[in-house]
Design goal:
Helices cover 6% and strands 45% of the residues. By secondary structure, it is mainly beta. It is globular and about 45 Å long. It is found in: Cytoplasm.
Length: 158
């Protein structure tokens, strides 16, 4: 995902909610959207790995971002969405509270991420998108999924 300093063209992002915040990630990483369904649990997996599903013959790990970001106990209802991502050739499912829409951000609508020393995932936040009174926290999903805490994608895969 580009930051405000190197973005020359509009950026299309999928906006989604986790708790009270709205996030955005590059639409180019999204393969499909699915409702939350039963997963097969994996023994000794981290709490945020809900398990795996079989998606048309591909075994896909399912990550609950609410648990990953310590945003309280997740609830799974008709609004819960699994965003199927394709990152570095690996398919990963990401559980979010809801998906809003696809938004096109012009370069002037993207502000640099604030410097938040010690924030858990601050290296994965690439900017803040502004749309009228809304703010989207723009995340670099590649970096997030390759982070040592997640360990789902090898960094050299991009």
């Amino acid at each position: 995902m580009n930051t405000a300093t190197d973005t020359a063209s509009p950026l299309e992002v999928l906006s989604f909610r986790l708790g009270n915040e709205e996030y955005g990630l590059s639409i180019q990483k999204v393969q499909e959207l699915r409702g939350y369904d039963t997963v097969t649990h994996i023994a000794n997996a981290p709490d945020f790995i809900k398990g795996v599903v079989n998606l048309r013959g591909t075994i896909v790990p399912i990550v609950d971002m609410r648990i990953r970001f310590n945003l309280g106990a997740p609830t799974y209802d008709q609004f819960t969405v699994v965003v199927i991502l394709n990152i570095g050739g690996r398919v990963i499912g990401m559980v979010v509270d809801s998906v809003s829409d696809v938004i096109t951000l012009a370069p002037e609508q993207i502000r640099p991420a604030p410097d938040m020393q010690g924030a858990m995932e601050s290296a994965c936040i690439v900017g803040i998108g502004t749309i009228d009174s809304r703010m989207l926290i723009l995340i670099d999903i590649d970096k997030l999924m390759a982070s040592p805490e997640m360990g789902l994608v090898a960094e050299e895969a991009f």
